[in-house]
């Protein structure tokens, strides 16, 4: 898809003086010249980049209004702004902590209720036969709970599906995912997670906390809710992408902290102190409330939703001989993780093609719920692994066919929330599990978890991954002791922990954050080094085969995600090849009709327009003067900020920054703004609204250079200029995200209107 | 110091065609017009910015040579480069770990020897009287050891003084501190630290590990040592500031890790994975070697040089009632920290004014060593705090005037390396210390540590700060129990930990890194939240009074340090006011004599020159075409890359990127390059050596905007252009660092040739 390069300045610029006829011709020209711009019917595959995602703008539009406001604010007022920031972060932390408590307590009670009902039923039917009724009861219970959870997601807010981590990752990367930080999404997410976990799916409730924290942050920092139509008239200063992003990253941190008790889990861009503070408050709130709820009020020593229990390091150190074993476990985790991701990839492709109707999605979720229950039941039924009930800490011991005083050990793995199962695998004394039980459980749970991820329910993949890993890790530890005839004493709990780390690392491919999370959740730093080692190995091995689960899903959504650096071999490309051209420019004093026509022209994907010098008859070069955003133009048109052509000297109506902030972030579409024929002939002066100092690059700049500028500053539009400061093109996120490092070198994705 | 703004293009540009006479006139003009540029005799104060520091360039000069090389490298070759990076990081980790081991083992042995000698002496003289001989022995021993440590620092490598953390902070910020990453510095640093600690000063050996790790990283990544005149011809690809910085940050991380066993201690800019990996390897190396050395080979569960011992969290949780107490301790820590910093500030000012001769510095260091020994001795002598020797873990129990089977408890605090004293204060059972002892010790040690920091010896302030804090924390805990008549049971060890955190936080003002470091060093995450709380409180309270110790010293050195963001109230300034103007520009094809003259002209502080279109007679605007660095010009002149004016069509000698890399980073001065009178008349074509796409800003851009661009991309020179892309000025680090937020708002520092 290389473009022929028009080299005369006139063809670079489309100075906005187009009549309707011109405009149509222009579209035509655009379509023939730039065929890759709007191919509508490309079958879905991962080598696409969707045009439907817009960018967030992390670069303040420093127009006159903005500068005037900033200059008016003195030192003391800035301190007030700073204090407001801290207050907002505290509120984010408190609310995130409370939401986490709510989820935890509701899940605990509902799941407890369910298990008691099913257990009583099984106990009843074990004696008199007819356990198929129990199975039916269990499967029906699960399926109906999951149905509700899936219904609300599929029909009310599809973006609440999954863990939300890929979405928040994209948001913080600068991609505007529609609805992702709305209040409605939060409500659906919270209810959805509760229902998925209670419905017995192979899911966790931790991942979604990150999304929840982010929504809370976005809501509070704006001081209003558009969904509820309430504007509290506070925090208006923060109504722009730049500020909102910082708070969202603090919210995400608070979410991680509430889920895992790990305050340094997310190191997203943005101010570290705020993230840190919000995390602190969030953990603290969660702990205080839960400690009161659990009766041992004010003992704050167990942070986080998930707590893997303490490994007593005095008893369980590790030696250098174990290092190669851990590395081997990392390799296994990497391979199993890659397998998980590959299976999930095919499944997701299948879902994108065939299960895109909401009804079907609900049916699939119910099916998975029923199958999960059935598999669990059959495995419990077939298992003959009985363990003495004495001294064990099983919550719902199921006797089934075991002798009195014993319980079915397979049941503890299935008949429990996954969180509890993980803790059991870590801490149950050696000998609690039969190797056969563990093997079967690993196998089954692996496929169930893989099938579950990507369903239209709110759910996380952290805990299932840990559970799979803990199961095979423990199995591995037992086998090791057995095979070496006890010469290596492998504590099963320790190996379960390493297995869990390896499996999770192999699936999500994080290293630093996961190390901290695992360290925090085990309340112990001794295992820091081996956990790191395992995670890095798993990542390296996994990356060799296939991408991480979150990145894979981001790619499957064709999101224009920008990594930290440009692909290494992209120095051969320059801004000239990468940019879109021609670019629609506006004149500094422009005819209203032209502005309306340009905004209505859907062929232009850009949401920002370079502003050039207004006088086109002089021979003077039409150098770049500024950049104005579509949203700003919309506000100008809405407030009719223009004067008649005859009275250009008359001062046009003044707008305040507040007018722009009130419209943020849901600017009305151009169709909703009525401009009369007379008004079309008026002129609009963009000088004080445009950003007079947009960042620019020369056409000779290499792609990595452009990329670095774009990414480091969080830009949305980057104007490409020639030696005389004339506009020759525009680089946006899609132009950069298109180039990716494939197996054979640099590859270029196609753009599509998916 | 506002400048009158010349507005005609001709006065903006100094197209480089100056004869010697012109040049002198120009200097004259410069001096009258821009009086703040070279004021030589301003008395030292903190409102100065030194002109002696140059910037590092984190922006690759993407000239033709560079791009050609990058384009030649294919995908597979990039993988080799990536593997080399990992190998280098592993080597950095291993060497840093080994250096840490070396320091640890040598200090342990030498200090042990010293304490045994003194103890035997005291034991001898206690019986027969004449303890003043013991005092004399102790003081002389200390003073002579410190003398050697101070001599090598003062006379061989003054930059090795102190902990090196401020220097590395500046380096990573982009300031070139002379000699900071040289091999000689490393050798002096390591020996200096050993001698300071053995000399009984109130110092730690942990801080300097960060500096050591950085030097190791800088050395290895360049594959050569200029000091040793050895070039291993490897890693030549990494011979530029950009790459070197990433490795130095990995080295700093490895240093932190070796010192504290905390792999996530430093979160400096640069690639996190490499930092993480180097840390991992470093901890691992240290542990392996130390575990073998200490006899319990292969037990790797105690990471880091300093290990505060494990707090058993089962026994020692914390409750919500303690939170306000912890916050109060944070306040105390903040105030004491601010006091420490203020005292140290006055002391440092005094030192800068009166103790700048190396001999005096050595004498001061010896004095401090002798005083430290004397104070210790007198306090031990006066103390009547005897404790039973049974069951205690004191290394060198000093009986002195205590009964048989008892030891002097004051002696344990002084008669020990500070690291061990900290651990004792954390873990000795309740009742081991008399409140009076603790109070006196805190008071004395506070002033000693304050006096010691800033001496011309290599030493860190971490451990002394922790020790002061641990002492008053323990005292606080004991008093609390006593005052509330036991209704609050304050475990002295826990309060010692919190006090240590508060004091350290109050002095250095870090939060995130310190929390992780303290958590790692105590092997426990339970106290994560309260430690964070204490650190944040201490930081907020401390910041109210005076800056953190490291920032203060950076400011006292007048280093042009750039913070993350521009001062909040700086929107009123634009690039036009901030930039230096006029700027010396070069033409694309320039006369050699002109280049030599410009480079020899010391009035220009810039090390980069905008390159403009070469033909000055046409009416065409002289738009910016590129940017060339002084160092690049030097290499061009050295290799005589020029052609006679008559034969402009002849291709000039080609240079390779290797020629530039070989000269990096110590480019010869212009005076060492001889250019004959004939050669002066030759022409030099800069096209392929200049960076053709330098970043630019328009003159209207606000200071925060310029700042953001400069800081985010790690620039050294930022060209300011007008609407026609003509050069109007240049912004460098000093122009931005000059503006600072003082107590009353924005203030401007003066520039001085200190």
UniProtKB/TrEMBL annotation, chains A, B:
- Pfam families in the cross-refs: CBS (PF00571), Voltage_CLC (PF00654)
Membrane topology note = Multi-pass membrane protein
Q: SMART domains per the record?
A: CBS (SM00116)
State one molecular function term (GO): chloride channel activity
Annotated localization? Membrane
Transmembrane region positions?
86-107, 135-156, 186-203, 247-266, 272-293, 323-343, 363-382, 436-455, 461-483, 495-519, 525-546
Keywords tagged on the record: CBS domain, Chloride, Ion transport, Membrane, Repeat, Transmembrane, Transmembrane helix, Transport
- Any Gene Ontology CC annotation: lysosomal membrane
**CBS domain: which residues?**
690-748
Residues in coiled coil: none
SUPFAM superfamilies from the entry?
CBS-domain pair, Clc chloride channel
- Which superkingdom, per the lineage? Eukaryota
What the record says about family reads:
Belongs to the chloride channel (TC 2.A.49) family.
What name has this protein been given in UniProt?
Chloride channel protein
């Amino acid at each position: 898809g290389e473009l022929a390069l028009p080299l005369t300045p006139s063809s670079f610029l489309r100075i906005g003086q187009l009549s309707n006829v011109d405009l149509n011709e222009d579209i035509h020209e655009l379509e023939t010249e730039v065929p890759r711009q709007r191919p509508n019917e490309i079958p879905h595959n991962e080598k696409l980049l969707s045009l439907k995602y817009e960018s967030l703008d992390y670069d303040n539009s420093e127009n006159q209004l903005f500068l005037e406001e900033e200059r008016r604010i003195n030192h003391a007022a800035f301190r007030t702004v700073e204090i407001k920031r801290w207050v907002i972060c505290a509120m984010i932390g408190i609310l995130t902590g409370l939401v986490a408590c709510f989820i935890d307590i509701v899940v605990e009670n509902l799941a407890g209720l369910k298990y008691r009902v099913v257990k009583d039923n099984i106990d009843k039917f074990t004696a008199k036969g007819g356990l198929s009724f129990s199975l039916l009861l269990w499967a029906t219970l699960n399926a109906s709970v999951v149905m509700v959870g899936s219904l609300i997601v599929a029909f009310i807010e599809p973006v609440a599906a999954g863990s939300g981590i890929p979405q928040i990752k994209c948001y913080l990367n600068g991609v505007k995912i529609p609805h992702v930080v709305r209040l409605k999404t939060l409500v659906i997410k919270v209810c959805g997670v509760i229902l998925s976990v209670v419905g017995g799916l192979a899911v966790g409730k931790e991942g979604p906390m990150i999304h929840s924290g982010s929504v809370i942050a976005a809501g509070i920092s704006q001081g209003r809710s558009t969904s509820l139509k309430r504007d509290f008239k506070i925090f208006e200063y923060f109504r722009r992408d730049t500020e909102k992003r910082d708070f969202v990253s603090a919210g995400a941190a608070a979410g991680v902290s509430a889920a895992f008790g790990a305050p340094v889990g997310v190191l997203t861009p943005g101010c570290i102190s705020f993230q840190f503070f919000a995390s602190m408050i969030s953990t603290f709130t969660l702990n205080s409330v839960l400690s009161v709820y659990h009766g041992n009020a004010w003992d704050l020593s167990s942070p986080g939703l998930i707590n893997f229990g303490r490994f007593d390091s005095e008893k369980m150190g590790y030696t250098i001989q174990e290092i190669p074993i851990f590395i081997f476990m990392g390799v296994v985790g990497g391979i199993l993780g890659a397998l998980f991701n590959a299976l999930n990839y095919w499944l997701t492709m299948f879902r994108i093609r065939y299960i895109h109707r909401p009804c079907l999605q609900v049916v699939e979720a119910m099916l998975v719920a029923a199958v999960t229950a059935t598999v669990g039941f059959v495995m419990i039924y077939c298992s003959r692994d009985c363990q003495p009930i004495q001294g064990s800490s099983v919550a719902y011991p199921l006797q089934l066919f075991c002798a009195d005083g014993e319980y079915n050990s397979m049941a503890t793995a299935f008949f429990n929330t996954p969180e509890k199962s993980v803790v059991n695998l870590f801490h149950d004394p050696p000998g609690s599990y039969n190797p056969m039980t563990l093997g079967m459980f690993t196998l089954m749970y692996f496929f169930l978890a893989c099938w579950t991820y990507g369903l239209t329910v709110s759910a996380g993949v952290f805990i299932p991954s840990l559970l799979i890993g803990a199961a095979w890790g423990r199995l591995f530890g037992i086998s090791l002791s057995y095979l070496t005839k006890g010469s290596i004493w492998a504590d099963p709990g320790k190996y379960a922990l390493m297995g869990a780390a390896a499996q999770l690392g192999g699936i999500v491919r994080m290293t630093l954050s996961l190390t901290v999370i695992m360290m925090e959740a085990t309340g112990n730093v001794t295992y820091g080094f081996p956990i790191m080692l395992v995670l890095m190995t798993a990542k390296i091995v996994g990356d060799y085969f296939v991408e991480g689960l979150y990145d894979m899903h981001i790619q499957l959504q064709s999101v224009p995600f920008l990594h930290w650096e440009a692909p290494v071999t992209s120095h051969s490309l320059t801004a000239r090849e990468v940019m879109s051209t021609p670019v629609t420019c506006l004149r500094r004093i422009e005819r209203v009709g032209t502005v309306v026509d340009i905004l209505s022209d859907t062929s232009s994907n850009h949401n920002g327009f370079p502003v050039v010098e207004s006088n086109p008859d002089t021979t003077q070069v039409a150098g770049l003067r500024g950049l104005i955003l579509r949203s700003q133009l919309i506000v100008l048109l809405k407030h009719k900020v223009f004067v008649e052509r005859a009275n250009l000297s008359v001062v046009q109506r003044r707008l305040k920054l507040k007018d722009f902030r009130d419209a943020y972030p849901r600017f009305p579409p151009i169709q909703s703004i009525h401009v009369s024929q007379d008004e079309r002939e008026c002129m609009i002066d963009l000088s004080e609204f445009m950003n007079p100092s947009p960042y620019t690059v020369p056409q000779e700049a290499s792609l990595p250079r452009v990329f670095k500028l774009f990414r480091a500053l969080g830009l949305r539009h980057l104007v490409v200029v020639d030696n005389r400061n004339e506009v020759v093109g525009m680089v946006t996120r899609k132009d950069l995200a298109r180039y990716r490092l494939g197996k054979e070198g640099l590859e270029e994705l196609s753009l599509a209107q998916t």
